[in-house]
Amino acid sequence: MSISDAEAMVMEVLWQRNPLSAEEVIVALAASTGWAEPTIKTLLNRLLNKGAIHAEKQGRRYLYSPALQREAWVEQQSEGLLERLFGGRVAPLVAHFSERGKLSAADIAELKKLIRELDDEQ
């Protein structure tokens, strides 16, 4: 499922707390994005049409909840990024960040721990 950056911001709000009314989503996003109410409602409708969210009628309003789980979306996005930029390989990705000084000591320690755990599993 293809979700734009703007739609992903709406999804983040719904992944953090749900169900939410359109008004609650607007309040959560308007200040940080500067988006007007119609923009946010359009994004909600797009996500609804894509099947990324559900809408349940409650009285005169709809409550929105994610149908797409964040973990599934992150997996899809990360696999797409790896494939597009690094031929599906993780090592060149890590090397890329290492060469640019983007790995902190904590990152390196975490990677070493992960590699040890992977070695233990084999």
- The helix/strand series, from N terminus to C terminus, equals HEHHEEHHH
Number of DSSP helical runs: 6
Secondary structural class: mainly alpha
Number of strands: 3
Distance linking N and C termini = 33 Å
Mean pLDDT: 95
- Topology-level CATH name of the largest domain: Arc Repressor Mutant, subunit A
CATH class of the largest domain: Mainly Alpha
Helix content: 55-70%
Largest pleated sheet: 3 strands, antiparallel
Output the radius of gyration: 19 Å
CATH 4th-level superfamily of the largest domain: Winged helix-like DNA-binding domain superfamily/Winged helix DNA-binding domain
The coarse overall form would be elongated
Uncertain runs: none
Instruction: Count up the domains.
Output: 2
**Strand adjacency order, main sheet:** 1-3-2
Q: Strand share of the residues? A: 5-15%
Q: Any guess at the CATH architecture of the largest domain?
A: Orthogonal Bundle
Task: Produce a short descriptive summary.
This protein has a 3-stranded antiparallel sheet. It is 67% helix and 11% strand. The protein has helices at 5-16, 22-33, 37-50, 70-86, 90-99, 105-121; strands at 20-21, 53-58, 61-66.
Describe the structure.
This protein has 122 residues and is mainly α. The chain folds into 2 domains: 5-66, Winged helix-like DNA-binding domain superfamily/Winged helix DNA-binding domain (Arc Repressor Mutant, subunit A), CATH 1.10.10; 89-122. 67% of the residues lie in helices and 11% in strands. It contains 6 helices and 3 strands. The chain has helices at residues 5-16, 22-33, 37-50, 70-86, 90-99, 105-121, and strands spanning 20-21, 53-58, 61-66. The protein has a 3-stranded antiparallel β-sheet with strand order 1-3-2. Strand 2 (53-58) and strand 3 (61-66) form a beta hairpin. Helix 1 (5-16) packs across helix 3 (37-50). The two termini are 33 Å apart. 12% of the residues are buried.
